[in-house]
Amino acid sequence: MKILITLILWSILLLLCWPLAILVLIIAPLFWLLLIPFRILALIVDAILALIKTLLLLPSRILGYKPGYNC
């Protein structure tokens, strides 16, 4: 669905201003490539925070705490 909306918006842009639409076609992949290191960094930070959470909750899990269980 997201791809279809993007295609429709790009088609409208192509009808209104074709040089800008061609420029978007060229710049969008370059922009996506520039964002890859930030996505990798976000993945690493997410993994580190999950590890810290797991280590902090380990004693309670050993004692029998079950997340999502309401007493």
Fold and architecture overview:
It is a single chain. With 71 residues, this protein is mainly α. It has one domain (2-62). 85% of the residues lie in helices and 0% in strands. It is built from 2 helices and no strands. It is elongated, with a radius of gyration of 23 Å. It starts with a helix and ends in a 9-residue tail after the last helix.
Break the fold down into its secondary structure elements and pairings:
Elements: H1 2-16, H2 18-62
Helix pairs in contact: 1-2
What is the terminal separation in angstroms? 42 Å
Order of SSEs = HH
- Tally the structural domains: 1
Strand proportion: under 5%
Low-pLDDT segments, ≥5 res: none
The SS-based structural class is mainly alpha
Radius of gyration: 23 Å
Largest sheet: none
Which shape, going by the Cα principal axes?
elongated
| Rounded mean pLDDT score | 91
Tally of DSSP helical segments: 2
